[in-house]
Write a structure and sequence with these properties.
The chain is mostly beta strands. Helix content is 6%, strand content 35%. A 9-stranded antiparallel β-sheet has the order 11-12-13-14-15-19-18-17-16, with helices on one face.
Length: 468
């Protein structure tokens, strides 16, 4: 199918208002879901260790552990995070995976190809079977920093996001790493094509801020961007490239960056508790200086707010810590990790936002924004992070809470349910799920465990038994 026909076909296939889970009218009502049943400890097929609790009939294998070797002999970095799956040859799956490494710790892989030889983040590309057996693996982008999440693109590429504004021109961040050792500015999007290494050219017009995720709208060619500004208000953005990326065959720099605003309500605060199923009419405000030129080495806190402040001064809406995003049938679903009200008996988490999470749906063709779900309490949904969608339109939410971490499902009927629990990792209470993505055909759910010794996992089983 040629590129123009691809675009028109996708546009024609967009479903009605808030298709998929965005039609949910329930807020915070955890329904009993009998589809998959109770969770039980299951042993990893790689080494026999119990890492996951899953329903009966599901199995998994871990692979590509931090500290192991890529096919070229270089070392796999840690902090496995956002990830996407693409169809590979002979029934295999190609995974492009982020590594959210911070600080001037040196690039992994070939430093000659690194964007910044002092930065330790980037992406790796693996070809695996649908049962998690590694066929090939290699670094695909290095020398970037804090690669948190991103998004798969229709022209077979992954766009990875730097969740930072570190660089030699700004003060040190929360980690205390010496930014003067960095050689390049950070805080950008980078494209990583399937099948070859990335060019390591940042898309500067898409902004320099704490990027988290990207969701591509094939009908318009726009990229919808989330911002996770931990201690400050965050925004929901869109980047309008100078040419439709499917027609161009890649993502071009030089476009326009905008920030979402609620019509008739300047700087509307959407980070607080919302009415069930509330819907807003929206508009977009331009960001005049998406890639600010910092002088005098301002503090990191000042620099990380520079782009979002422009939008809010023009009336853009306020969110709390926007993280995962995914496009499905004309709606972009995105997660506000700490959005909502603090439930009785719960404590407000650290950072900006006092709730335990919201899921929003933005309808790309109408411009309407709807609250899909707001967590009523930590036990139902605890600070969701990355998100993906199944073929049936059910969302998979990766938790990033303080206690037990789950993969939870949010069905089209408004059911929030537990699908998988992470076995606590000895000596690493911060271990969490990240980067969930279904492989071609939906046979396998690939997911990462972000930990001191991170790893990827392949999960498969009787999906037809339930909402996934």
């Amino acid at each position: 199918m040629d590129r123009r026909r691809f675009i028109s076909t996708v546009a024609a296939g967009i479903a009605g208002p808030f298709a998929g889970v965005a039609c949910v009218s329930h807020q915070g009502q955890a329904k009993p879901v009998r589809a998959y049943g109770p969770l039980r400890p299951v042993r990893d097929l790689r080494d026999g260790e119990v890492r996951l609790h899953l329903p009966d009939g599901f199995r998994y294998r871990s692979f590509s552990v931090a500290g192991s070797k890529f096919g070229d002999g270089s070392t796999v970095p840690g902090r496995h995070d956002g990830m996407a799956a693409f169809a590979g040859p002979k029934g295999s799956t190609i995974l492009i995976r982020n590594h959210e490494v911070n600080g001037p710790v040196g690039a992994f892989g070939d430093k000659k190809r690194a964007y910044d030889p002092m930065a330790g983040g980037g992406t790796s590309t693996l070809r695996v079977t649908r049962h998690g057996e590694v066929i090939e693996s290699a670094p695909s982008l290095s020398g970037t920093m804090m690669n948190c999440s991103g998004g798969p693109m229709a022209w077979r590429a992954w766009v990875t996001c730097e969740e930072t504004v570190n660089g030699p021109d700004v003060g040190d961040d929360f980690s205390g790493g010496d930014n003067s050792k960095l050689t390049r500015k950070h805080g950008y999007l980078f494209e990583v094509p399937v099948g070859r290494a990335a060019s390591a050219r940042p898309i500067r017009a898409a902004g320099r801020f704490a990027h988290e995720s990207v969701a591509f709208d094939p009908s318009s060619g726009a990229l919808y961007l989330t911002e996770d500004n931990f201690g400050f208000p965050s925004g929901f953005y869109r980047y309008l490239p100078p040419k439709h990326p499917v027609l161009a065959g890649r993502l071009l720099d030089g476009g326009r960056l905008q920030m979402l605003a609620v019509k008739g309500a300047k700087r509307k605060d959407l980070s607080v508790g919302q009415k069930r199923g509330v819907t807003y009419e929206t508009t977009w405000v331009d960001i005049d200086d998406p890639d600010p030129d910092f002088r005098g080495r301002p503090s990191n806190d000042e620099a990380v707010q520079a782009v979002g402040k422009q939008g809010r001064e023009a009336g853009a809406a306020i969110f709390s810590r926007l993280e995962g995003a995914v496009q499905h049938q004309g709606t972009v679903y995105f997660v506000s990790t700490q959005g909502g009200a603090t439930a009785p008996g719960d404590e407000a988490p650290d950072g900006f936002g006092d709730g335990r999470g919201q899921v929003w749906g933005y309808e790309t063709w109408s411009g309407r924004l709807k609250l899909v779900y707001e967590s009523p309490r930590a036990s139902a949904l605890d600070v969701p992070d990355n998100v993906t969608v199944s073929r049936r339109g059910t969302l998979v939410l990766c938790e990033d809470g303080d206690g037990a971490n789950y993969l939870r499902g949010l069905s089209k009927a408004g059911e929030i349910f537990d699908f998988c629990r992470l076995e606590p990792v000895d000596g690493d209470p911060g271990a969490e799920f990240a980067g969930s993505t279904f492989g071609p055909g939906g046979h396998t759910l690939y997911v990462n465990v972000q930990a001191r010794q991170g790893m990827s996992l392949a999960i498969w089983g009787p999906w037809e038994r339930g909402p996934f």
